[in-house]
Amino acid sequence: MMVASKGALDGLFVLDLSRILAGPTCTQLLGDLGATVIKIENPLTGGDDTRGWGPNYALDAAGNRTDLSAYFMAANRNKRSVAVDIATQEGQATLRHLAARADVVIENFKPDGLVKYGLDHKTLLAAHPSLVYCSISGYGQTGPNCSQPGYDLMAQGFGGIMSITGDPDGVPTKVGVGIADVMCGMYATIGILAALRHRDATGEGQHIDLSLVDAQMAWLVNEGTNFLTSGIEPERRGNAHPNIVPYDAFECADGHFLLAVGNDAQFARFSDAIGLVGLSDDARFTTNQSRIENRAALMDLIRPAMRKIPKAALLERLHAVKVPCGPINTVGEALTSDQAKARGAVVHIPKGDVQGGDLPLLGNPLKFSRTKIRYDRAPPRFGQDTDEVLETWGPKGAARPR
Questions:
Q1: Three-state secondary structure of 99-135
Q2: Domain edges within the chain
Q3: Each residue's pLDDT tens digit, 111-148
Q4: Is it true that domain 13-219+344-393 has CATH number 2.40.50.180?
Q5: 49 in active site
């Protein structure tokens, strides 16, 4: 079967007025799927804030630091960087012209922050009724907190995830990456694609109002519904699971490993494999519900047994009886594993103006049989595509800041 040469979103034009992580995560995904993404950056500040979020940067051929920080590169491939001063009349005219060409506009200014420039959703949708306009903010366009700035840390704190993350006796802990931003970007991508389908069916565009906090509360998933069902606040359990036992990180003779016993049959095989033959016949541990009720007693029995067994032997035994378990890899171990290599977890995108001639980046996990993920453009240097974009799609005589 022939594979399509174009991305699934080929021909889609996206005007990206966002910065940092949530919006850029969304637009990178759209770009990976074939959309043309025009990233607007402020010439007075040197562009997206994350260009300066080191300490790790791509180096140029001479070994000097570029404006391609690792953080910036994580969310900005498959885009063209255009330097436009939104505070000037010329810049506003340029952006309105590009918005008229766009299928999608995405921005993460404070609510009503673009009104004074004539680039807000009401103005642009009135002029272009088929436009899909996505606004990302900390708390949304409405509500008592709508004027507050939004950062991932604040969203994780306000939205509840920090209260259930970390050691039970420690402090509430954020997730190790900006997961509220990333998941908000994922929701934005889904929302934009749904709005585009509606637009294609009816000709009607619309405004998407999405916030970091709204998205974060939505992915509280089982812990959120645990509270809604019982009225009881979920607890921090470290790596343990509130609804499945045993499901945790455990110590073995020479390190730690992960165990996820998902049903009663697995528990019987697990207990036999670690030398506690017949433990599953104990009425306290026969079912998952009984194991939840007797969690502490069960831990007192299985933890000492596993501490006697080396990790390799333990994993081998559990895999042999089909009990879910695994290692706790470092980031380096994960990204250099045979599995990561087989699945294309890391991609190398050619970029001639950096040391080595290419940039190693995290790959897109989607595997399409026909419309393959595209890696056509490495993360851009600040403003590198200004002339090309304005000459191709800009208004006649548009200012070209340097």
A1: HHHCCEEEECCCCCCCHHHCCCHHHHHHHCCCCEEEE
A2: 13-219+344-393, 247-331
A3: 999 999 999 999 999 999 999 999 999 999 999 999 99
A4: no
A5: no
